[in-house]
């Protein structure tokens, strides 16, 4: 899973964003609890988390629509915590397109320029350029009611970028669209980000969306940042059980460290020994650990594999997903394991009750904090 090329440095108008000890309380409830993060110039940062984790509250605080209970928000080195929303020069795109139904596409996109008293000739040029960027130039004279949902969202994007904002904020803009259209617009948003070189802050609860589009992802839980990093870092090296479980699927193996010295370590689960690449944090013999093992990193064999970690089991259930099989395999030592294997190279023909061997390398899994 490759990260997209970063826009490090950003475009000429790109700005950095810093949040320091941001908090927002509603009564005694902390919607955001002492959050600090930095978004570099031209970066695409996604705030990812379940409902109620604080991601939209952070975005709306940056936009100026929510007044923080504490902390500061800065653009470059300028504090904007108490600056009114209309003075921040930020573009915003919401889940609802919020287009004016009585205005044409061109007039909708040009509205931010009109309120800024941009000259008509210059405004027409900017509108045409913005519509071309989102591939909507030929629809300039249409009304919103004549457009599909995806086309309306493109128009909303054009309206958000037409005045060259200092920052683009996007609050689940694709969640109302069907799966295929969402996937298409993800590619277009990535392309738009590269074209503009601007700083994007994106909110979603969709893990695949966050992984596919972002330079950096901040995973939120109960108003705090659980972990922040590149999509590859978060997926391959989750710090906690929550991150591993929220960001994709994972099997969790609870064991006891048997050997902690050397280039790798050994741990036991229900009397069976497994080998694990050494984690960054120090562990000692006898420590309890939790290991995260992604389903796609487990090999399925008909015969016992010559691998450091192997276990035999029986297929409890399986799904055919076209390009892959998803198996649930019951083992004596580890309980039920979820396994994903490409259809074209699956070494067995899945059948309920069939006996299989599972194997994985020491660096296929990672030790996580049990929280």
The strand line-up of the biggest sheet is 6-7-8-3-9-10
CATH class of the largest domain: Alpha Beta
Overall CATH architecture of the largest domain = 3-Layer(aba) Sandwich
Order of helices and strands: EEEHEEEHHHEHEHEEHHEEEEEEEEEE
- Could you name the ranges where pLDDT drops below 50 across 5 or more consecutive residues? 1-9
The name CATH uses for the topology of the largest domain is: Rossmann fold
Name the helicity range: 10-25%
What overall form do the CA principal axes indicate? elongated
**Total of DSSP H or I helical runs spanning 4+ residues:** 8
Radius of gyration: 24 Å
User: How is the biggest beta sheet arranged?
Assistant: 6 strands, mixed
Structural class: alpha+beta
Q: Write down the overall mean pLDDT.
A: 91
Q: What percentage of the residues does DSSP assign to strands (E)?
A: 25-35%
Our measurement of the CA-to-CA distance between the termini, rounded to an integer number of angstroms, reads 25 Å
Number of domains: 2
* CATH homologous superfamily grouping of the largest domain: P-loop containing nucleotide triphosphate hydrolases
EC number: 7.6.2.11
Enzyme class: translocase
GO molecular function, one term: ATP binding
Subunit structure: The complex is composed of two ATP-binding proteins (PotA), two transmembrane proteins (PotB and PotC) and a solute-binding protein (PotD).
């Amino acid at each position: 899973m490759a990260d997209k090329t970063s826009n490090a440095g950003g475009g000429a108008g790109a700005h950095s964003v810093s949040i320091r000890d941001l908090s927002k309380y509603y009564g005694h409830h902390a919607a955001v609890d002492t959050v600090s993060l930095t978004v570099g110039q031209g970066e695409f940062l996604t705030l990812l988390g379940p409902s109620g984790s604080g991601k939209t509250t952070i975005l709306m605080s940056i936009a100026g629509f929510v007044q923080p209970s504490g902390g500061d928000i800065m653009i470059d080195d300028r504090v904007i915590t108490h600056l009114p929303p209309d003075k921040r020069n930020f573009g915003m795109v919401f889940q609802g397109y919020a287009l004016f139904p009585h205005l044409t596409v061109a007039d909708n996109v040009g509205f931010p320029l009109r309120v800024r008293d941009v000259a008509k000739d210059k405004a027409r040029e900017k509108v045409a350029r913005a519509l071309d960027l989102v591939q909507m130039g030929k629809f300039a004279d249409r009304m919103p009611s004549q457009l599909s949902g995806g086309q309306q969202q493109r128009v909303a994007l054009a309206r958000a970028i037409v005045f060259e904002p200092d920052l683009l904020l996007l609050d689940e803009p694709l969640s109302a669209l069907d799966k295929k259209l969402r996937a298409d617009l993800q590619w277009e948003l990535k392309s738009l980000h590269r074209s503009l070189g601007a700083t994007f802050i994106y909110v979603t609860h969709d893990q695949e969306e966050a992984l596919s589009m972002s330079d950096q992802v901040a995973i939120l839980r109960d108003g705090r940042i659980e972990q922040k990093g590149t999509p590859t870092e978060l997926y391959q090296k989750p710090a906690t059980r929550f991150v591993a479980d929220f960001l994709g699927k994972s099997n969790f193996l609870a064991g006891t460290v048997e050997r902690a010295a050397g280039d790798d370590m050994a741990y036991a689960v229900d009397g069976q020994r497994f080998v694990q690449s050494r984690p960054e944090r120090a562990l000692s013999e006898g420590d309890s650990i939790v290991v995260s093992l992604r389903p796609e990193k487990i090999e399925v064999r008909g015969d016992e594999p010559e691998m450091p970690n192997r276990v035999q089991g029986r297929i409890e259930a399986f799904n055919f997903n076209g390009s892959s099989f998803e198996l649930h395999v019951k083992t004596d030592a580890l309980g039920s394991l979820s396994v994903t294997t490409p259809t074209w190279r699956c070494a067995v023909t899945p059948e309920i009750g069939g006996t299989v061997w599972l194997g994985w390398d020491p660096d296929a899994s990672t030790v996580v904090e049990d929280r």
